[in-house]
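User: Fold this; tokens only.

Assistant: Input:
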Amino acid sequence: MRRKYSLVGLMLALVCAATACNIGTPSPTPGILVPADTAVLTPTETVTLAPIHSYAVVLVPERGTLDVHTAAGKSSPAAGTLAWDAVGLQSTGNFAAVGTDTWVELNLPGGGTGWVNRNNLTEYVPSGTFCTDPGPLALFPTIGMAVNTSNGSALAALVSPVHGLAVGYIHGGTPRVYAPPELVSIFTSIESVNWGLGPGSGLPVMGTFNDRVRPDLIDVLGGAYMPYCNTIQLGGASYSVQWPAEWKNINFYSLYKPGPAGQEEAWMTWLAGVDYVDGLPYLFSLARYNWEP
């Protein structure tokens, strides 16, 4: 957990270790690359009907591909691949539990159906639809209340039940991915996280979520922040920031708090990624940015 990754590196590594990310194969065009045959279920699989959604691929490296399987489970044959940025993938309404993972059956653009691990999917919401949805804007003050009152259970209920919460505190530092059950005790946890190297000292910035992250979340979410939809808004920085390619299909807001007059460098931004589950917005990620020398 202490190895240094990009903002999403740790989250991607954890998911790809348990799923079928074919990281080494570039994809020249978005969408399905090799059509999959209609899935044939084995007698031991338990398939359950679920609401039909349109999905998009997430947590696959830029120009990489994601394997599609003929049946639920990574041990089943691969029948095709999806590009790292594929969108508009319609589900059949079938899903299956394999161990601790959930697999979703998709209608593939090239014909037939195939199964994909739910961890590598997000419900597809076009940017224009997202930016006019009042749900995310209502979500952020509720998150602020949970943080301000140190209510871990309330925070956990607002975080993606599929992907958990990825938190980055230092630009270029080490992210920490919290599974939803961990969030219940996040404000009382004594885990000292290595958030990355301090920009001034060059020394590791250590501390608990409660000691390090919580005060800066309160500072922004409890103040007069300005939301910018799918746009990175900073107050001026000596570094560049890009939304991670592996999160291309995750919408986000810049929650930007400008510095006061005469202290313009005291700005702070939290980039908040939003994941939709059964049509409802949940917090997917938080990444803090501020002025660095």
